[in-house]
């Protein structure tokens, strides 16, 4: 199989260290608070939180205690994502106590494995005779995919292969049962993720059969006769999406993947599938599959994505709906979906080094992803709205999924461990290596205070980045070259949101080539060279396409990659009455003690004054509205709901 090589291949996590600033704080939070807290949650030790049942199920499945299966059918995946986060955390910050806890957890999980390699507590407890009979709904292959990713992360962090060997045995069982050959099950997962996990497993083990299995699952999906339709008919049971707008496309299985031209169905499943498609397209050189990825990418980012990088606009089915349907107050915007979009973006970037992929990756990370976690790491959002009215969440069933405060835990707790594994592995998203005109290229996608090491050609290079990004637009990169010099290309992403920037080497202007969102500096770098990128970071007003009905006549405020919002805490209630001028100016303030350290914004706006003739009346003859001045205070969207429950809005009306 021929691999495409024109993109930016991610670097190993152990070569990157985020040492300070914005993302260091979040990684420390995940390491010291989130991972331990989630371990307590997986063991049902969080008072007042919904029980997980996760580790309890493994004890029952292994025969260590009597009991029944508890929780969701995919409850095993909560452990899998937790152990993946642990693996990444141990890579960047060794911790013997955490490693000991993880080893004991792995011993428990592996003790439940069956002689033929099968490892899924739902069917081990409830009856192995029914395994692989309900692929559409019961998540066996999904749980295995997550367990693969967790096992790989832990093996790469510690060198311990007990869990890796367990998932290989399970993967070998699946490989023996599924495929196009006569006598095999010709199905595929209802909830995707195993596709990209199998690609990782092939990379780690060198076994190409895992890549072939991933390709089979992708190629077989949606083919006729449709496996899911036959499976559902055979069961004789009603299924929830039979009369829905999407039908089998809820699972992205209504037609072959190369015929799918719009992002449809369950948003998390969709972007997990698209990530696997991009992996397989790159690994096999499959142009038709790659073209399908680009078509689906365009469908999402040009017509079905929120300004925060959130996706999945409908509560019903946690799904995509139709082009430009992006309501702010009833949005679903699941945290996992934004995380899945980051996965998809990075895989597109691996194949094609275009800044637009990194731009979306950044947009989701700074907004729709980390909004899903409180600043103390102890409560979480499943849903990430762009407008909140507490009374509506309380009294309107159609908006009851929109919470005004983060929750301690969830019975369906996919988002918290998913967030932990992404933040812990962020170093793998910051850089990439590739080739250009026969030479080596070091790509710098995301900016954070830290250091990294690379091999470019046959020479070692180390870089140290100094920055206060995203609060400050200065990014200084210093090169340490053990051999004194090295010739390569350094490609810095110029964010799509940035209108003006300067680029210097050792304080002097330099020649560079700009292409597809990157500034390419090709030269012989000397030990001690310093490249400085200055990004203009003024606040800016963003408007949506006029096709987005909910945002007509409105703007949102952004500064750098960060989307801002208004909260009742700072601005009072009735935020729907607020408007700002299209040429308003902002006062910026660095507040180190507020919300973990933020740049806040203030501007002068106006608020609708209730005319006296509406006293006691619902409707009256039109008269021009009267507005009164109001000072408006803006905070980063990701930090909302960390002080008190109240109204919030991202989009505000603009004054002509």
Task: Give the topology, please.
Blueprint: E1 9-10, E2 16-20, H1 21-42, H2 54-61, H3 76-92, H4 96-111, H5 121-126, H6 140-158, H7 162-177, H8 194-205, H9 208-220, H10 227-235, H11 267-284, H12 287-303, H13 335-351, H14 355-369, E3 387-388, H15 390-395, H16 415-424, H17 427-430, E4 431-436, E5 439-444, E6 449-456, E7 459-467, E8 474-480, E9 485-493, E10 501-505, E11 508-509, E12 513-515, E13 518-526, E14 530-535, E15 540-542, E16 554-559, E17 562-567, H18 568-571, E18 578-581, E19 587-591, E20 598-609, E21 626-636, E22 648-649, E23 652-655
Parallel strand pairs: 5-9, 18-23
Antiparallel strand pairs: 1-4, 2-6, 3-22, 4-5, 6-7, 7-8, 8-14, 9-13, 10-11, 10-14, 12-13, 15-16, 16-17, 16-23, 17-21, 17-22, 18-20, 19-20, 20-21
Describe this structure in words.
The chain is α+β, with helices and mostly antiparallel strands and 656 residues long. Helices cover 35% and strands 20% of the residues. Helix 2 crosses helix 3 and helix 3 runs parallel beside helix 6 (140-158). The longest helix is centred in the first third of the chain and has 22 residues, at 21-42. It is globular. The protein starts with 8 loop residues before the first strand and ends with a strand.
